[in-house]
Amino acid sequence: MENGLRGHTEGRGSNSATSPTGLTPGVKIPTTPGLKRRLTRRISYTPARYKDDDEYIGFATLPEQVHRKAVRKGFDFTLMVVGESGLGKSTLINSLFLSELYKDRELPSVNDLIQRTVSIEKKQLEIEEKGVRLKLTIVDTPGFNDTVNADDCHKALLEYVEQQFKQYFEDESGLNRRNIVDNRVHCCLYFISPYGHGLRQIDVETMKKLHHKVNIVPLLAKADILTKQELKAMKDRIMQEIEDNKIHVYEFPDCDSDEDEDFKQQDRELKASIPFAVVGCNTVVEAGGKKIRGRAYPWGIVEVDNPDHCDFVRLRQMLISTHMQDLKDVTSDVHYENYRATHIRTQMSGTQKERV
């Protein structure tokens, strides 16, 4: 089984050698339609540069003003988690945000699973890091694909996403627009089972229903059960099926040309990691005299925070450190604007029919 652990490292290298996306040549990844975006991570303005400049006016401090205002106001982010029971969704969320959001959850019995329907559960968490406050909303979907007939699983998800668009539209069109709460879903982590041979029909149908409403980030759950060959084959097959079914997943923006080479390399690795092969764990084990987060097996230890073992670190980097604002921008500029245009068009069409 040591090969299974080592295989993740070699699989990553094999991915990079074949193509920048880890796919076979000629396969194009379908992406979220939208505006051309650039990934920018820092503000290069420094006041000292202009202190003694006779032509200095002062508006170069605008980025700092915006930054201070944004920090005072805080940030909102809504994350939807979709996948059947047993794929480690709760554990992964706890690992991502170093919290215990689901410590009181009880596993459903067999009888509960037979009659279970998809429900929506919201949990909110306020996090502060270096003076920056984040109001995080986790939208869980227990019951998804847990029944024998799962044809209508996507309906509850779609209704929830559209309801948040509708509520935001009504608040935006109302009299008091100063304190609008943004509950729109900014990202959907879609968990794919590692036990099959790629995407199942329920996965294809659900993602096709959601991909024009929300940013979908596909995850390959429980990646530690796969060897290096199985992991690479599964990733390639999933991306090929996403391409064949014309499913639009979240498109990573391009880096600015003036970014350093290390940041560009990180961006290339993120794009090549789709779908992210993740392992969630909050258990601390001891290995080599050090305490690490990981899963202990008779053949060795899978370290969650080791990028050679799984893509958890890359997912966390993308979701929290580098692309959180872009996920919000795409939600606002693309998905919400599409809903808004359709809604207004429908309203105008109904008004014209009444006049006739």
Automatic annotation (TrEMBL):
<dbReference type="Pfam" id="PF00735">
    <property type="entry name" value="Septin"/>
</dbReference>
<dbReference type="InterPro" id="IPR016491">
    <property type="entry name" value="Septin"/>
</dbReference>
<comment type="similarity">
    <text>Belongs to the TRAFAC class TrmE-Era-EngA-EngB-Septin-like GTPase superfamily. Septin GTPase family.</text>
</comment>
<feature type="compositionally biased region" description="Basic and acidic residues">
    <location>
        <begin position="1"/>
        <end position="11"/>
    </location>
</feature>
<dbReference type="InterPro" id="IPR030379">
    <property type="entry name" value="G_SEPTIN_dom"/>
</dbReference>
<feature type="compositionally biased region" description="Polar residues">
    <location>
        <begin position="12"/>
        <end position="22"/>
    </location>
</feature>
<dbReference type="InterPro" id="IPR027417">
    <property type="entry name" value="P-loop_NTPase"/>
</dbReference>
<keyword id="KW-0547">Nucleotide-binding</keyword>
<keyword id="KW-0342">GTP-binding</keyword>
<protein>
    <submittedName>
        <fullName>Septin-5-like</fullName>
    </submittedName>
</protein>
<feature type="domain" description="Septin-type G">
    <location>
        <begin position="73"/>
        <end position="346"/>
    </location>
</feature>
<feature type="region of interest" description="Disordered">
    <location>
        <begin position="1"/>
        <end position="33"/>
    </location>
</feature>
